[in-house]
Amino acid sequence: MSDHSNMFSSSASSSGGVSIELDAVSKVYPGQPAAAVEDFSMSIEPGELVVLVGPSGCGKTTTMKMVNRIIEPSSGSIRIDGRNVLQLPPDDLRRHVGYVIQQIGLFPHMTIADNIATVPRLLKWPKKRIAERVTELLETVQLDPAVFAGRYPRQLSGGQQQRAGVARALAADPPVMLMDEPFGATDPITREKLQAEFLRLQADIGKTIIFVTHDFDEAVRLGDRIAVLSERSRIEQFDTPGAILAAPANEYVASFIGGGATLKRLGLLPVTAASLTSADPARGLPRVAADDTLRDALDQLVRTGAAGLDVVESDGRVLGTLGHADISAALTATGRSEVPVP
Ligand SMILES: Nc1ncnc2c1ncn2[C@@H]1O[C@H](COP(=O)(O)OP(=O)(O)OP(=O)(O)O)[C@@H](O)[C@H]1O
């Protein structure tokens, strides 16, 4: 086994992520007059989920694929955990960077268990450890090992195949995951379910993830930070979803956000972000759970026509009452604090 199989050993043996630094990275495809990616720089923290979002052809996929050298950069430098990826053998690099794509890419002639075992086998793990890892991962992505391990990809639904794809990418516990429109091919309901499952999973494993999508709402839902890109992967704004929604940097970003920016922001804020007034049981107001969002609360206020809502903890304790004005005030307050200092 080469030394490089341990190149991220400090982090790869246990869950967790590492930093990624791209510095002045460009890509000019052979024979093309213009660069597909020009002078792209970005620092990503360990364990951060960064979403690259932008219109078709702006260079998202090219940017991401340069991180594991599926595409070789024309210039610039890329460091993972401080190591220059351009000086690492590409095969070893790819084994340590999990990769999930929209077309899933499961090998059709291999069972789901064999698909998931691909990288651990390349890394020559002992058989027993591979078998245990496959079972553990199938459970992690909520596919019953007794049912799915021996099936072939065609015997799974699209959403199940997507989960198996995520399990395969996680097999060798890579510190970095690259995800290219991974949920793009699924219907909206399956997609939301996969997104929610994925967020729960990421809360446990804390990988460093670069996630590509053209769907801004998906970016808001998943990203710790979002980079809104225009042509040649130019970064128009790179910030938290809340900050981008509260203060789009320019017209381009605003148009990319689309309608309903305020509602989208409310969807990011818990009910407890508002200042509550003290509750009066005599009013008999409808209730909202403390871990619901302000968007849920507004929805309920509009639907019920009530003047306010009592905010209740899971143990039944009433924290206070929330009204329309409190929701508006929470937006103003968080908007101010989220505007990045120039
Ligand atoms: N192999 C290639 N040879 C030449 N040009 C390419 C190649 N791959 C991509 N391009 C061009 O580079 C630009 C960026 O493509 P890229 O696939 O990175 O964009 P994208 O933002 O991921 O698009 P999409 O959302 O449609 O997947 C596009 O203009 C594309 O036509």
Automatic annotation (TrEMBL):
Enzyme Commission (EC) number: 7.6.2.9
Any coiled-coil regions, as ranges: none
Occurrences of domain CBS (ranges): 281-338
SMART domains recorded: AAA
PROSITE patterns for this protein: ABC_TRANSPORTER_1, ABC_TRANSPORTER_2, CBS
Family matches, as Pfam families: ABC_tran (PF00005)
Gene3D superfamilies: P-loop containing nucleotide triphosphate hydrolases
Protein name, entry field: ABC-type quaternary amine transporter
